[in-house]
Request: fold
Amino acid sequence: MRAASAQAPGAVVLIRPHHFRPNPQTAADNAFQRTADHDVSRETYDACTRVAEALRAEGVRVHVFEDTGDGHPDSVFPNNWFSTHAGGRVAVYPMYAPNRRGERRADIIEMLKAEYRVQEVIDYSGLEPDDLFLEGTGAMVLDHVSRIAYAVRSRRCDPVLVERFCTVFGYEPVVFDATDPDGMPIYHTNVMMCIGTDIALIGLDAIVGDARRAEVARRIRETGRTLVPLSAQQVAAFAGNALELRGRGGERLLVISETGLRALSFEQVRIVSESCRILPLDVAPIELAGGSVRCMLAGIHLDPR
Reply:
């Protein structure tokens, strides 16, 4: 049995949308997003149900909330508007797309306070009128053990807010630029990068500048992790949009979409499997919106009451 890790939460929040569709307000800067050729709302609802059932079967605590409205197309991605941290702290974030701002829900924060030890909620959402945005653990990939926040600079990730977050929550910022093969900026860090306990999946070639690319790789290796480089094609298939969780008995699981797993090579799968058991999930309809399994799951790094 592999040891449990502070990097891998044992509980998550999952939002099950009833009227899911790719968001027109985010299409301009999300190259991973696709147009649906039919109504996929029922398929998405069912996919979320399967994810919740699969995680619970592995011993992960899953808090499912329903979104019955039709005004929040991306509500299935709650990790963008809040994050939780050891020591009882919760952060609430400013969102770039106006129709995403209503995804923030007081009932979820109240659930966290009721079920877990929450000492402080720090709300950055009031910075939206100043056009300052930081979309949570989509914008930042957090190394909870070595206390590093990796962040790709974008409209949704303001370096000033990254610095502010890191000062308050005790992380060191590592900010860089990254683009896809067409030169379009990567919209969220977590589509190209996953930090686990012993491994890091990352689309290194997307990082702009040889020196910066080498620096990010060096920082990851210095934490003792095995670096697993991803190609642009693998990043496009959401192979980097994965999340390590803690299941029954503390077993570490890497949850990844079936799409992402199919994109990995045999050798990459072998390396990952030496660290944690891979749990593939079918979330194909959700991937139309430009995010995958990791985007769907807001990890809970809080002590239960």
In short: The CA atoms of residues 167 and 173 lie 9 Å apart. The chain has a mean pLDDT of 93.
